[in-house]
Amino acid sequence: MEMGTVAEGTVYEPRDTVMTVEATNVSEAYIVVRDGLWVGFWLPVEKGFVAVEHAVPIQLQREGQ
Hints:
The chain contains no helices and seven strands. By secondary structure, it is mainly β.
């Protein structure tokens, strides 16, 4: 589900699951997509962006598809 945008791209919340990232602690994460590439994670609690090392092509499925 599209949640909005940040400077790095469009933020999508995973549907029917909780995604987390782990560093010094574990944080809930949404994916950030720009121009068909998964470019990083948005951490909603921390209100921060974390880039992936290498952008990955991604195809998103729209609601009802």
